[in-house]
Each structure stands twice: as structure tokens, then as C-alpha cells.
Write a structure and sequence with these properties.
Largest sheet: 8 strands, mixed, barrel
Number of helices: 25
Number of strands: 27
Number of domains: 4
Structural class: alpha+beta
Shape: elongated
Oligomer: single chain
Radius of gyration: 37 Å
């Protein structure tokens, strides 16, 4: 991956974004891109917005000259914590990181600012980590939080001094005196309490707690405190009671009970806690709130309907980033809010949350047993409701939504486990919906999910396959028609995994290409193949398959030169096999690199010819030396006139263009004779030899 080009493209895009410019002008933060070495010890500033000067008191130029200028401004006690957090994120290959630290300003009063850093992290093939982030001054936010906490403490102190209820009980627990600042907090009027025993007034659970506290207070001489809820006509209240015991001069013991109504304090705390568990944009639960209590309450509410059917939907707003870029972030927010506001209208028994970004999850209970077809119909109707047009200014806008869904089992018995399983299923359904095109609905498919999980596990295992020496090369002979005693060979990559055994290249090569691990793996294959051929002079040449991702690397020509120089293999004994998909990319760049390597003596073959969209006339502009006819044409060449006609036409045209033709998949003597009669230049297939471990090919002579 060309990191420099990627950075330049990213910076160019960011400069064009007006909202980022506004951020730089108006905010107290700054944006940055920093790359770290694999161990996190070395850092390089790739980009920093000019607003860094307002926050840190240094210019962008000063930062580029001395990246430690930021570290020196961090309060000394926080430096090691920040350093350790960065190193831990890199070691864990985290995709995001959040840091908090204090910044010593250069103002006369030496004031301290509180900084919050949020960054996403990407990893380059060379091991570096690229941090895209923003640093924001949250000093004012912290001061407001501390001020709120101080006010809550003041309120608590005041309430401690002003009891709402005061009772005096005799040693047996009979009311002797009652005082109430608000008689609505009493279970009975004061005059009805006098002379009654507490057991005749208090609910059983409250009476038990009061009785226990009275016993301890009388026997230990220490006041006892406890909290309890009480249902009153105006709703649930939360009380804190303090009970103490003293002996009077007449020898009669007396209990003093002070009760404070803490309902408002509890509500403040509950509101504060709920605010932390709600998504600020949509008002739905966030992931923490969904799992922290909302899911449990949903299950308790639906526990009385054992015949109900539970569904989970994962809704993704397609193209939200494009909406933000073209219509503005306010428009994107309105689309997301509109879809979120429609979710509760789907069913009275629905629990919804925003998991982050553009994804909304809904858990819905449908009364009674539903068939799969009925569930699918309900989801389609829900999708139609959520996708209804909405107004964005003067624009009638219909949001495009992709939905993954599944039925949920055992949600009442094991809510967290069932939710996590269902979430994994709808995520796979959503992935399938997006893979097949936006604006689609896909139900979770267990077989597809199993394949996806295996792909994920294979991809994870593949990351260490090269380092752990699990990859190896097999060589398959290529018979040259004009020199039967000489052989060429094609290097074929194989993977023997300790966990999965022999993994087919058809499975792991696409995974390696998707993760870009194919670049490092391809360079290893090229180096190994050159060293192998250099040690076997009787092999006319070795063919190596090149991935389009590998070929697209800016230093690909240098990589090939390095492999040749290191091994000592003459360039004319190396043939690079490319696929037709490579020709769909930048043909000018492809041709330039091919001509550079041809000048060294390297040859090129077009692999699997006939399965793509190239044609012989298009290939005339490229320095191709050979075409490899795909095995699908060779398999039925003796029985299918169409295949025979195609093969004969390719052979004729290729020879006119002075391009060698290699037939793949030759398995019978009859196929071989038919091809040789039509002057096919080289043959490859099980008839002449299966792929064998590279080490088994003799250093001299031909393989058995």
C-alpha cells in the first residue's frame, strides 16, 4: 500500500470539506494524522490542522520539526499513561482509541486544560499504524460536570438537615408523636397514627426492616439507617430512614425515627444515568443502555406471553456518508432521526437502540405464534414503513435501507446470550443484504453464517501463516512441445494450517487479497520460486502467479528485480502469470510495468485466458509471450464442437501474433494428441504430473 499517496488523497479530500474548515475555525480542537512504528516508539506527523496553535500553543511547522512538543506540554503525571495507552492500542491492533490527559498552557496563570483525543486506527502492510483523529478541549465540560456534582452534594446536605417526617415510638413500636412537613407522605393522617402499632400501618416488607433496625438500635445504642421504596397515591417514593433509641428519665425507652424523602435525588441520578445510556441524536438506547437494563425490562414485560414470536431487525441507512457529503451533516442527522422515530410505530412491544454510526437495532414481540412466511411479510411491511419518503428542505427524499433479520429464541430465559446470538445473526443478514445490493432485506441463513464464520476464522489464521511457515510451494510440470525432454514449472501456493489442515487456494487466496496480505505473501512466493529455479538449471523457466493487488504496488518492478538479484536467476527464466482482471485496471500503468520488466528479460503469460473480458486485439499493446487456455475449454475439446472451434481459433490467432499457447488441464493422451496436432506450444495437466512439493523436484534431471 502506498501510504504517502493514501495520505495525500485523504488530505486533499479533507481540504475540500467545508465542515472540516469550519471545525478548524470555530472549535477548540484540532485534527491530525500520525503514523507510529510497529512498537509505538517512533511517531511521524502526516497531517495536523492549523487549529493546533489555539489548543497547544505551537504551529504546524513546529510540530513537524518536533513531535515531542506536544508530549512536553502534557502534565508530567499523565505522560506515561498516554504513552502506555498508545502502545497497548497498537499491540492489540485496536481499530479505535480514546485518550484523556491534562495540558499545561503557556498562559501567565499556568492554567491546565483537559484534552480528549478520539482516533481511528488503520494498519499498513509494513506494520505501521496510522491514527486519524481529533483532539478536543473538554475543560468546560469537566467544569460543568463537577459543578453539577457539587450542586447534588449541596442538595443532599440540605435534605439531611431537614427531615420530611419525624416519629416517636415507644419501646413496643407504638406511635406516640408524629410530625410531617408534607402529610401526603404519610400512609395515614397523623391523628390516626397515634396509639397504633407500626405493624398495623406499614407494609410487611417495610415493617420488617423497621423492626430489625429498632432491635439493633436498642441493643447497640447506635442509630441505624436504611433506604426503602414506598408506593403512595402520587407514585413511587424513595425514603431514607434513621432510627435511634434512648432511655427517658421515667425509665421508658423511646425510638426516634427521622425519614427523608429522597425521591427527587433518586430521579436526578436515574435521569443522569439514563442520559448516559441514551443516544444523543436519536433518543434511542445506545448499546450500553440496551444491554444494561432495557433488554432485561423488555424480557420481564414479555414474559407473560409465552406464545409470542420475537424478531430482531438490524437496519442500516444506506449511503449516509454520501448524504452527509452532498446534502450536509444536518440532512444526514435528520434522515437517521426520522428512521429512528418510525421504529416505535411498528409495534407497541418494540425495543430499539442505535448501535453506532448508521445502524439501528429493533427487538419486537409479535403476539401469538407466527410462521416464517408471516414473519417475512411483517418485516417487508416494516421496511416499507421505515423507507417512506421524508422532507429534506424542498427535497422529497426516500431513504434506502438495508435490513438483516432473524427470529429470536429463549429471549426470556437467557436475554443477554440470546441477544448476542441474534445480533451476530442479523449482522450476517445485513452483510448479505449489502453484498447483494443496497435497499434489500435478508434473513439470517445458518449455512451462509457458518461459511462466513469459517471465512473469518481462516482470515484470522492466515495473518500468521507466513510468519509461522505454514505456507509452502508446489511445482507442476509444463511440457514444451518443441523440446519434450525439457520441462518448465508453475509455482503453486499451498497452505497447511495447524487448525484447518490443507486449505484450498480457492478459499484462502481471495481472503489474502481482501486483507491485502497477498502483497507480502506474493513477494515471498516470487522470492522462493526464483531461488528454487536457480538451483535447477534443467528447468527451462518457472511461472509465478501475480495478484492484481501485488502488481498494483508502486515498487512491484523493484520487487521482481530484487528477487532475481538475490537468487541469481536469469530474468529470461522467469515468467509472470497475470489474470485478465488485471487488465480492467489502469492499463497504462500495467503496460508500463510490463515493458520495464520485459526489458530485463522477464516474460509474461495471461492465465485462464477465455474466462474474462480481454481479447487478442487488446493484448497486442502488451508484451505478452504466452496465453494459458483455461481448463474448461480443454475438458470437452474432443466432444464439444464449440470448445474445439474456440481452441483452434485461439491457437491460430495467437500464432499469427507470435504468442505461445499453453493448454491447462490436459488429463488424457487423446487430448494431448489433439492439441499437438494443432501446434499447441505447451501442455500442462495431470497427464504430465500433479503438483508436487518443490523440495521433491530433483536438483538435476527430470522429476519421476
Amino acid at each position: 500500500m502506498d501510504i504517502q499517496k493514501t495520505m495525500q488523497a485523504t488530505l486533499g479530500l479533507e481540504r475540500d470539506e467545508r465542515w472540516l474548515d469550519a471545525f478548524d475555525r470555530l472549535s477548540t480542537g484540532f485534527r491530525f494524522i500520525i503514523s507510529y512504528s510497529p512498537d509505538g516508539a517512533l511517531a511521524k506527523v502526516e497531517f495536523a490542522s492549523p487549529s493546533i496553535e489555539r489548543l497547544y500553543g505551537i504551529t504546524v511547522a513546529e510540530l513537524h520539526r518536533d513531535i515531542d512538543a506536544i508530549r512536553r506540554r502534557i502534565v508530567a503525571e499523565d505522560r506515561e499513561t498516554v504513552k502506555a495507552a498508545i502502545a497497548r492500542a497498537i499491540a492489540d491492533r485496536a481499530s479505535a482509541c480514546e485518550l484523556h490527559y491534562r495540558l499545561q498552557t503557556s498562559s501567565p496563570d499556568q492554567s491546565v486544560r483537559h484534552i480528549r483525543v478520539m482516533a481511528t486506527i488503520e494498519y499498513a502492510p509494513d506494520g505501521r499504524s496510522i491514527w486519524y483523529g481529533v483532539a478536543i478541549d473538554v475543560t468546560q465540560e469537566n467544569e460543568l460536570r463537577e459543578g453539577l456534582q457539587h450542586k447534588i452534594q449541596q442538595l443532599q446536605s440540605t435534605l439531611r438537615l431537614l427531615p420530611d417526617l419525624w416519629f416517636e415510638l415507644d419501646a413496643q413500636g407504638v406511635y406516640r408523636a408524629v410530625h410531617a412537613n408534607d402529610e401526603a407522605l404519610l400512609l395515614r393522617p397523623p391523628e390516626e397514627l397515634i396509639g397504633r402499632h407500626i405493624s398495623a400501618v406499614l407494609p410487611p416488607d417495610v415493617y420488617q426492616r423497621v423492626s430489625d433496625a429498632m432491635f439493633v438500635a436498642q441493643t447497640t445504642g447506635r442509630a441505624q439507617k436504611f433506604r426503602y421504596p414506598q408506593d403512595l397515591p402520587d407514585g413511587m417514593h424513595h425514603f431514607e430512614a434513621s432510627i435511634s433509641f434512648r432511655d427517658r428519665d421515667d425509665g421508658q425507652g423511646v425510638f426516634t425515627v427521622l425519614v427523608r424523602d429522597q425521591t427527587e435525588i433518586v430521579r436526578i441520578y436515574e435521569a443522569r444515568e439514563e442520559a448516559l445510556l441514551r443516544d444523543g441524536l436519536t433518543g434511542l438506547w445506545n448499546r450500553a443502555g440496551f444491554m444494561d437494563g432495557a433488554l432485561t425490562r423488555y424480557c420481564e414485560r414479555s414474559a407473560g406471553a409465552p406464545q409470542s414470536t420475537s424478531l430482531m431487525l438490524l437496519v442500516d441507512v444506506d449511503g449516509l456518508r454520501e448524504i452527509n457529503h452532498t446534502l450536509g451533516h444536518d440532512a444526514g442527522d435528520r434522515v437517521l432521526r426520522a428512521v429512528a422515530e418510525r421504529l416505535p410505530t411498528l409495534s407497541p412491544c418494540l425495543l430499539a437502540a442505535r448501535l453506532g454510526g448508521d445502524e439501528l437495532v429493533a427487538l419486537v414481540e409479535l403476539s401469538g405464534p407466527w410462521t416464517d412466511e408471516q414473519c417475512a411479510d411483517w418485516v417487508r411491511q416494516a421496511w416499507s414503513t421505515l423507507s417512506a419518503p421524508l422532507k429534506l428542505g424542498d427535497l422529497d427524499f426516500r431513504p434506502s435501507l438495508s435490513v438483516g433479520w432473524t427470529t429470536v429464541s429463549h429471549i426470556q430465559e437467557h436475554p443477554t446470550v440470546a441477544f448476542q446470538e441474534a445480533l451476530a445473526q442479523v449482522e450476517e443478514g445485513l452483510f448479505a443484504a449489502k453484498r447483494s445490493g443496497r435497499g434489500r432485506i435478508e434473513r439470517f441463513d445458518a449455512e451462509r453464517f457458518a461459511h462466513a464464520r469459517r471465512r473469518h476464522e481462516l482470515a484470522q489464521a492466515l495473518t500468521g501463516a507466513l510468519t509461522n511457515r505454514e505456507l509452502w510451494l508446489a511445482m507442476q510440470p509444463i511440457v514444451l512441445a518443441d523440446c519434450p525432454n525439457a520441462l518448465a514449472a508453475e509455482a503453486l501456493l499451498r497452505w497447511r494450517s495447524p487448525k484447518f489442515g490443507e486449505v484450498s487456494p480457492l478459499q484462502f487466496i481471495p481472503l489474502a487479497e481482501r486483507s491485502r496480505a497477498i502483497v507480502a505473501i506474493g513477494e515471498w512466493v516470487l522470492t522462493q520460486a526464483c531461488q528454487w529455479a536457480a538451483a535447477r538449471p534443467q528447468v527451462s523457466h518457472v511461472s509465478v502467479n501475480i495478484s492484481p493487488y501485488q502488481f498494483a504496488q508502486a515498487d512491484f518492478v523493484e520487487t521482481v528485480e530484487r528477487a532475481l538479484q538475490t537468487s541469481g536467476l536469469p530474468a529470461n527464466r522467469l515468467c509472470l502469470e497475470i489474470t485478465e482482471s488485471l487488465l480492467a485496471d489502469d492499463l497504462t500503468d500495467v503496460a508500463r510495468k510490463m515493458h520495464q520488466l520485459e526489458a530485463l528479460g522477464v516474460r509474461f503469460a495471461l492465465d485462464d485466458f477465455g474466462t474474462g473480458y480481454s481479447n487478442l486485439l487488446q493484448l497486442r499493446s502488451l508484451p505478452l509471450h504466452a496465453l494459458k487456455l483455461d481448463r474448461t475449454y480443454i475438458r470437452d475439446v474432443l466432444t464439444d464442437p464449440d470448445d474445439a472451434c474456440i481452441v483452434e481459433a485461439v491457437l491460430e490467432l495467437a500464432h499469427r501474433l507470435q504468442i505461445t499457447v499453453v493448454a491447462e488441464g490436459v488429463e488424457t493422451r487423446e487430448q494431448s494428441e489433439w492439441l499437438l496436432q494443432r501446434r499447441c506450444d505447451a501442455l500442462q495437466g495431470y497427464l504430465y504430473g500433479k503438483p508436487m512439493p518443490a523440495q521433491q523436484w530433483p536438483l538435476q534431471g527430470l522429476p519421476p
